[in-house]
Amino acid sequence: MAQNIELKIKLDEFSVVTEILHLNNIKLETILRQRDIYYKNKNGLLKLRIYNGSGELIFYQRNEDDKDRVSNYHLLKVDPGYAEDFFSKLFEIEVEVIKERRLYLYKNTRIHLDEVDKLGSFLELETVVNTSLHEGKNEFLEVVQLLKLDLNKQIKTSYRTLLLEK
């Protein structure tokens, strides 16, 4: 099972973050138009992600109350042309999240600037743990400091939950 460390912060605008990224020569990798279809699942979060002609089924577990938002996840590449119909026959759809994601990469950290339908603008970090959790946490904190983020402003829940609570 793969592992990453996550952070989500609501933003009024992206300009402050994009300026820091630009000053540190961290370039925009791609823009992703994503649909995340969450299915009801009592053992964790299960979503089908469809983006730019690709698809992934993602199952993950995370303790939202933990100081560090560490997620354990499995990822399965799927054919988006068939996956949505197939999985909707197996699972009940809970909610759908539609977003445009600007993806930047810094070492093992994915920096997302997300514009989420019905929710607004967010910054997300996902630092992939490759060697050890300790090294992953160090890189995560390096990115937090680089972007001058206030950890007290983080939202410790998924877009799924934010939409369900709306």
What is this structure, in a nutshell?
This protein has 166 residues and is α+β, with helices and mostly antiparallel strands. 25% of the residues lie in helices and 48% in strands.
Beta content comes to over 45%
What's the architecture in CATH terms? Beta Barrel
Major sheet characteristics: 8 strands, antiparallel, barrel
The name of the CATH topology is Hypothetical Protein Pfu-838710-001
Order of neighbouring strands in the sheet with most strands: 1-5-4-3-2-6-7-8
SSE pattern, N- to C-terminal: EHEEEEHEEEHH
The amount of helix comes to 10-25%
Distance between the termini: 32 Å
DSSP E strands, number: 8
Q: Give the count of helical stretches.
A: 4
CATH classification, class level: Mainly Beta
Flag low-confidence runs: none
Classification by helices and strands: alpha+beta
Task: Describe this protein's structure.
With 166 residues, this protein is α+β, with helices and mostly antiparallel strands. It has a single domain, classed as Hypothetical Protein Pfu-838710-001 (Beta Barrel). Strands 1-5-4-3-2-6-7-8 form an eight-stranded antiparallel beta barrel. The longest helix is centred in the last third of the chain and has 14 residues. The model has no long low-confidence stretch (mean pLDDT 92).
Features:
single chain, alpha+beta, Hypothetical Protein Pfu-838710-001, eight-stranded antiparallel barrel, 8 strands, 48% strand, globular
List the helices and strands and how they pair.
Blueprint: E1 2-11, H1 15-23, E2 28-39, E3 45-51, E4 54-62, E5 69-78, H2 80-90, E6 93-106, E7 109-116, E8 120-128, H3 133-146, H4 159-165
Antiparallel strand pairs: 1-5, 1-8, 2-3, 2-6, 3-4, 4-5, 6-7, 7-8
